[in-house]
Amino acid sequence: MGGSQGPRHLCPALVIRLPRGPDGTSRGFDPNSPRYQALSPVSISTAGCGNEASLEREQQGRVALRERYLRSLFAMVGRTIHFTMYERVNVSAFFDASDIDILNFQVSDLQTPLGVHREALLRCSDIISYTFEL
Amino acid sequence: MAMRQTPLTCSGHTRPVVDLAFSDITPYGYFLISACKDGKPMLRQGDTGDWIGTFLGHKGAVWGATLNRDATKAATAAADFTAKVWDAVSGDELITLAHKHIVKSVNFTEDSNYLLTGGQDKLLRIYDLSKPEAEPQVVSGHTSGIKKALWSSDDKQILSADDKTLRLWDRNTMTEVKAINVAMSVSSMEYVPEGEILVVTYGRTIAFHSAETLEQIKSFEAPATVNSASLHPEKEFIVAGGEDFKLYKYDYNTGEELESYKGHFGPIHCVRFSPDGELYASGSEDGTLRLWQTTVGKTYGLWKCVVPGKNFVYIFGKTLLHHNLSKSYTTNSQLKVRPARVTSFL
């Protein structure tokens, strides 16, 4: 009894596949997974405490804010935007589009200390704030 | 037909894996976090080893990692002199707690409201996670760097280990209740609430102490220096791994060595049983985590039990075909061809 197994006489336990590894492109935490959908914190938690009327008012406020933000994205197209980013980085570019989750901004003629990038993608999580003139 | 252990290798880390921890069983299964010297701790599904995400933010080797009970929060301890608390669902960094030296150990209370940290500055710190900017409560007394600090007795006490001592502290009075000297440098410590058992490793010894009195209950000697050991939830087995790259499984009651496995390409730094006891995970200097079955050959997670004599035909190499060609399985190991009987079994 005990000691190591000899490889000759035993048949290997089978596996249906190997564990999946990192996908190499993102840090993971798939927002489409059931756990994420169920548990992910909302960015601004609700202030109302169960009162139907105040919840409804709060929801309407959220709808109005969301619509204003989306309209502001439309207003940005084709204009020069000044981005303040982490590590004291300030860049400017023409705004082209945002992806649907507001995770990335597509920009052109991105002015950086290293030069001008004709087309670029800015990661929104790297942006602290941005301003533009109407 | 007795089966040979097929470990599942989880790759992704690029440097040694130095710590790992499981969550409790949640409605979404259970989870595993691994701490790595590459500074990027990873979260995985506990029963399959599938990668879920990587916590990005530390600027140095991560020495300790833990999950809260329902795996909604993670905490990590790093060589960049910080401990961080993370949202384990989104991967976002929630809180950074600055320390004065390398942080080695982090542990949540059962309600996830407090975090205990310990490290090279020899101080235990208790952070109130609802007020992260507030100064932590600090407990001093250790005379060398703290390797591990754990809540015990329903979070009313703290167990901590440094190079030569194990100490028990009362949480309310913040004073030391008991201390014992250990023969050699403590390499790991695991607290088992049911039965108040402390599993400690030092040198080649795997020792079991009472978590309430610190008295030693029993100990076993392994063939080589042991870096980590874990007690099965039902207290039937111990698994341990260390400097000889091998994993050992012992009967907890008799101390008999039941199984041993080679597989890692470097010393094993950490070993933990899953919360249901069906598998155990090992982290190694070789940068991988491996999942091992407690009962070899049982259907669980990615392992599949196959009844001998019925369904399979060997093909040389690593592929096994079902007799009606409807399914195929691959294994990690080379299978032998049996030319005499085409429909031979596993």
From TrEMBL, chain A:
Chain ranges of the SUZ-C domain: 1-33
GO biological process, one term: spliceosomal snRNP assembly
Record GO cellular component, one term: SMN-Sm protein complex
Top-level taxon of origin: Eukaryota
InterPro entries: SMN_gemin7, SUZ-C
PANTHER family with a match to the protein in the record: GEM-ASSOCIATED PROTEIN 7
Name recorded for this polypeptide: Gem nuclear organelle associated protein 7
Species: Chelydra serpentina (Snapping turtle)
Upper classification of the organism: Eukaryota, Metazoa, Chordata, Craniata, Vertebrata
TrEMBL record, chain B:
Full protein name: Serine-threonine kinase receptor-associated protein
Per-repeat ranges for WD: 55-96, 96-137, 139-179, 261-302
UniProt cross-references to PANTHER family, sorted A to Z: EUKARYOTIC TRANSLATION INITIATION FACTOR 3 SUBUNIT I, SERINE-THREONINE KINASE RECEPTOR-ASSOCIATED PROTEIN
The entry's keywords: mRNA processing, mRNA splicing, Repeat, WD repeat
Species whose genome carries this gene: Chelydra serpentina
CC per GO annotation: SMN complex
A GO MF label: RNA binding
Entries under InterPro entries matching the protein: WD40/YVTN_repeat-like_dom_sf (IPR015943), WD40_PAC1 (IPR020472), WD40_repeat_dom_sf (IPR036322), WD40_rpt (IPR001680)
BP-aspect Gene Ontology terms: negative regulation of transforming growth factor beta receptor signaling pathway; spliceosomal snRNP assembly
PROSITE patterns: WD_REPEATS_2 (PS50082), WD_REPEATS_REGION (PS50294)
Record has Repeat as a keyword: yes
Tagged with keyword DNA-binding: no
Family: Belongs to the WD repeat STRAP family.
Pfam families documented for this protein: WD40
